[in-house]
Amino acid sequence: MIVRVIKMTVKEQYIDSFRKRVPVISNEVRRVSGCMHNDIFRDRNNDNIFYSYTIWSSEEDIERYLKSMYYKEIWGDIWDYFKKEPMAWKIDNMFDYPSGENFPPK
Question: In which band, very low, low, confident or very high, does the pLDDT at 92 lie, cut at 50, 70 and 90?
Fold first, then answer.
């Protein structure tokens, strides 16, 4: 399991449009093979900063998605919304909790 986090800074004039498009994009990403979870968050202090949090089954699934025509179409459609280039990180979960166990463990 690999987590991919993307920080997106949106131009002020595109915030409303971005917020309308993000749920559709997020639902589509969830349907991609290997995507286990996807959420979009907005920064509490900056209305134009958003984060995508996606859990992937494997590195190969991420790479397949990044090379797909679908990925290029999505990002091509909204690229002008960004104030600066989005920043992306691939991170590993440090803890392996059994399903249903609360964090932090007692």
Answer: confident
Contacts 24+ apart (CB under 8 A), 66-71: 68/32, 70/28, 70/32
Q: CA dist 59 to 2, 3, 4, 62, 84, Å? A: 7, 10, 10, 5, 26
- What are the residues facing 52 on neighbouring strands? 6, 40
Q: Which CATH architecture has domain 2-91?
A: 2-Layer Sandwich (3.30)
In the chain, where the domains are located: 2-91
> Whole-number mean pLDDT of the chain?
89
Rounded to an integer, what distance in angstroms lies between the CA atom of residue 93 and that of residue 99?
A: 14
Q: How far apart are CA 71 and CA 82, in angstroms?
A: 16
Distances (CA, A) of 81 to 15, 45, 84: 8, 19, 9
**What's the predicted TM-score (pTM) here?**
0.84
Share of the chain above pLDDT 90, in %: 72
